[in-house]
Amino acid sequence: MSDIKQTLQAAMNIEGAIGAALVDYESGLTLGTAGGGARLNIETAAAGNTEVVRAKMKVMNMLGIDGTIEDILITLGDQLHLIRPLEKKPQFFMYVAIDRKQGNLGMARYHVKDLEQKLDI
């Protein structure tokens, strides 16, 4: 089992990782961040993605879709943004931004899922 800091540090080892965060989408609070910098304000991105998760949850509710979100992918010109709600605590999500040229989406999804399962909060 890993704590938040260890998990986010491990997320930064994903090939092409730019930044990572753990966020409570209900409150919009960021529980921890790693990386970021000049290419990405990780705090702003993490807080902004709460609106993405909230919107998807609202649409699922309106459509009567039961179940949970496995992950959400936002593809930008040079970045991939992966949002994965936690299975154990669905109000939290892990967010990882990846350089599109350096990263591999399949491997990133695999690693984020693995990190999420090992996270102890």
What can you see in these coordinates?
This protein has 121 residues and is of the alpha+beta class. The chain has a single domain (4-118), classed as Dynein light chain 2a, cytoplasmic (Beta-Lactamase). Helix content is 36%, strand content 27%. It has three helices and five strands; from the N terminus they run H-E-E-H-E-E-E-H. Strands 2-1-5-4-3 form a five-stranded antiparallel β-sheet, with helices on both faces. Strand 4 (79-85) and strand 5 (92-99) form a beta hairpin. The longest helix is centred in the middle third of the chain and has 22 residues, at 42-63. The mean pLDDT is 94.
Secondary structure: elements and pairs:
Layout: H1 4-11, E1 17-24, E2 30-35, H2 42-63, E3 72-75, E4 79-85, E5 92-99, H3 105-118
Antiparallel strand pairs: 1-2, 1-5, 3-4, 4-5
Distance N terminus to C terminus? 9 Å
Strand percentage: 25-35%
Mean pLDDT across all amino acids: 94
Tell me the helix content: 25-40%
CATH architecture, please?
2-Layer Sandwich
Low-confidence stretches: none
Strand line-up across the major sheet: 2-1-5-4-3
| Structural class by SSE content | alpha+beta
- The tally of domains stands at 1
CATH fold type: Beta-Lactamase
CATH class: Alpha Beta
Largest sheet: 5 strands, antiparallel
Total beta strands: 5
Outline: globular
CATH H-level superfamily = Dynein light chain 2a, cytoplasmic
Give the radius of gyration: 13 Å
